[in-house]
Structures are given as C-alpha cells and as structure tokens.
Amino acid sequence: MSEKLKKSFELFEDALQKEGLSRRDAIKMLAMSGLLATTSSSANTQLNASGIKVKIVIVGGGLAGVSTAARLKAASDALDITIIEPNANSVSYQAGNTFIGTGLYEKKDVMYRTQDFIPRDVEFIQDKVMEFFPDNNQVITKNKQVISYDFLVVSAGVKLDFSQIKGLEALGDMYTLEENEKLIQHLEGSGASTVYNINTAVQTWKNMQASIEQAKQGKQINAVFTHPHTAIKCGGAPKKIMYLMNSRLNEAGVRKNADLTFYANSGKMFVVKEYEDAIIKQYKARNMKWNLKHNLQEIDLQNKVAIFDKFWDEKGAYDEDLEEYEMVTKHEKVEVPYDFLHFTPPMIAAPEIGNSPIGSSNGWVPVNQKTLQHVKYSNIFALGDIAAVALGKTGGSVRKQYKVVAENLLAAIANKELTAEYDGYTVCPIITDIGKVMLAEFDWSMKPTPSFPLDPTQERYIWWIMKAYLLKPMTQYGMLRGKI
C-alpha cells in the first residue's frame, strides 16, 4: 500500500476519532465497513476451488469483471479465466467523473490501462461479444471468435442512450468510456453536457466555468440539471454535479446571480425517505429548486432550451363496482431556457445482451436477487450495472456483489449449495459541497444502513476524506485485486 494511501487512512481515522470514536473503535468500524483490505489467508481458504480445471469467461472488463477475476484467481490457480472486453482502458475510476466535471480532477486522474490490472495468468481478449449461445456454452465475438466456457460471468455495464432525447438522436448509444469526437462536436457551444461520458465530463467543467464567468459579469444565469426515466448508474451523480456547481458559484462570490433547478422524472428526490428529507432540507438551505415528474424529452441546442414532459395524475371516471376513481395521467410540455445544462441520458443494456437468450424484456440480465445466478442458466452469473437487480448500479454495490458471485460460482463448480447472498446493499456518497459528503447507505429494506455509528443523514467532512482521498486507491489496490 502506498505512503499516500496510508496517510489518507490516518487522516480518515483521525477524523473518525474527532467524531467521538476511540482509535480501537475507528479501526474496528473501518474493517467492518470493508474499507480495510481483507488480505488474510482465511478469505482464500473460504474460496478454495479444490484445484478443479474449469473454463470461466467474463464478458466485460470493467471494475466488476476484473475484481471478480482477481477474486477467483486468488481462490485457485487451476481456474482458466478469460476476460473479453473491447476497450483497452475499460478499468477507469468512473466515480471521479463528477470531480472532472467540476474541475477537481482531470481526465488523466481516472483513466487506467486495463492490462495493468488483469490478474496473473488471466487471458485478456480485446474484442466484443456479439452473440450468446447459452445452450451450447459459447459466445461469438465481433471478430468471429467462437469461445466456449463452463461458466459465464456477465459484467458488461450499461450504455448511454442519447437517441431517446430529441436533438441528440444522431449520437445513438455509447459507453461512458467510449471516445467519440462526434459527441463533443454535437454539444460544442450549446452549454449542454453530461459527466456520464468521460470526454463530456471535461466539457462540463468548461461549460461551468463559462457560466460562472457570465455570472461574474452580472448576468442572471439559469442552470438546469436532469434525471431520466430509466435506471441509471450512480443515481446520485445528477445531484452531486448540482451541489458542486452551487459550491463553485459560492467560491466565485456570484451565487446570487444563478438559479439552480433540478428536474427529475421520479416522484421522489431519493428512494429512501430519511435521505430524501435530508436532501430537501439541504436544497432549501442552499436556495436550490427542484421539480419532480418532469422527463427530459428534447434539447434545442441552438436556442438553449430544455423541453420536458411534465406529468401528473388526476381523477377520472368513478368506478361504481370498485368504488374508486380511475386515475388519468395528464401531460404538459414545459420549455426551460438554460445557460448551463447538465443532462443525464437514459441508460440501457447493450442490445446484443438484452436481445439475446440471456437477456430479458427490459434488457438487463435476469438473476436471482440474492445469489446473482441467472434465473434460467445455472452456469451463468451477472453483476454490476447489467444485472437485473433492484438496487446496485454503483461501485459500492459491486464491492459486495463480486464476492457473492465468486463464492457462489465456486460452489457451483463443486456442486454445492449457493450460500453467499447479496443483501441489496448500495452506497451513494452524495457530495453536498466541496469538503462535505452525506454517505447514503441502504439495502432492500429501503432504510439507512450506516456502516458507522454516526447519523447518516448529516453532511460530514470525514466522508469527504473518504470520497476524495480513499475510494480511488481502495479501488486500485483493493477491489481490482479482489481483496475488499
């Protein structure tokens, strides 16, 4: 572990003690929360595959895929593991995109070379799986390679579907790390961007700086932030970018010259009531506005107008048999001029996966919510953004899921019962200011499940330390090594 990481842990530990925890309790809580690497031999013993020679193919070489490969390889050198991934830079620290969009990181700070993290003796094929034949235990790649497997792990992430927004149809769909000059050119000069693509995250910071400069010159700017009608990875990111722009405007001394408004398709600001109440309180304190049940349908890039479908339910005809009113959804077109627009594109499963025998009607790979085993094919597992799990499209969820997949896959190899279970845990470090974070942890209970004995609805500097200094090296030296 690097000296920098050690110092970051010391800083975090010191901050915990200032919150009233003893050093012993602080270390205990770090270990329980998974922030300390589990490098003991007991972890490997638990994942012992008994030297069985088995061919495992992992589709997707991002955080989920590489972490799973590392965990499996640590369990048994006898496992024959292949990762298939088209992007040579697929292992990035995507959680840092929000920091790029607000000038706290540069692109180089989050980009890694995938080969540097591929575990020893794991084969890496830079190609894309285009067809799945689960009945024959085979996949076919774009380069026409036919690859057989005994077990398949699908961790291919999600695609950004720009085509669902009028004005962006020409962009089609793409991955977060996809280098696409057309995307930059299409949005150039429009004031619109998104941190969900690595290059437009850079563009977001340029747009933000331009808007702040306008505010400095006395113009009243209108900043708009959106959340779409589909499931998305890192559901808190659309709010994080808004909080951070608020912080940057305050830093520049021109907050009074800006209106910040959040438009969400959902009827709630957050799925967990305790965190929703805290967010609303924070918004009110910062004079930030929000509108629910607004779905972004179109962006007029030339005139800088965001166009939403505002919808609500009204009582319709009365049903005498059911003794209740029919509820009718009403719609209204709402046009919102903007100077700065951060839009979150709808997200989908890659069509070659969603439309395949291993996919589903909604695109995601259907798995048992607890074991992460495919509901139809017992030798297939899925995790991360592509898995049809009610919660879990975050790196924090993957940190729990990849261990479950590794342990259950090894149990399946040995014809044993699958005992490892994913409990729906997800975590969203909501950056509320430069120097403050609310650590939103929860599971399928839809109640706060904090790892530390501190009020989870409070913004704290210690969570900023974790977010800004610890999570990135933990990803590099922990998860990608299969250790935490």
TrEMBL record:
Q: Which Pfam families match?
A: Pyr_redox_2
Residue ranges annotated for the FAD/NAD(P)-binding domain, each copy included: 55-187
- Molecular function GO labels: FAD binding; sulfide:quinone oxidoreductase activity
Cited InterPro entries: FAD/NAD-bd_sf (IPR036188), FAD/NAD-binding_dom (IPR023753), Sulphide_quinone_reductase (IPR015904), TAT_signal (IPR006311)
Top-rank lineage group of the source organism: Bacteria
Report the record's Gene Ontology biological process terms. Answer: sulfide oxidation, using sulfide:quinone oxidoreductase
PANTHER family named among the record's database cross-references:
SULFIDE:QUINONE OXIDOREDUCTASE (PTHR10632), SULFIDE:QUINONE OXIDOREDUCTASE, MITOCHONDRIAL (PTHR10632:SF2)
Q: What is this protein called?
A: Sulfide:quinone reductase
Q: What species is this protein from?
A: Candidatus Marinarcus aquaticus
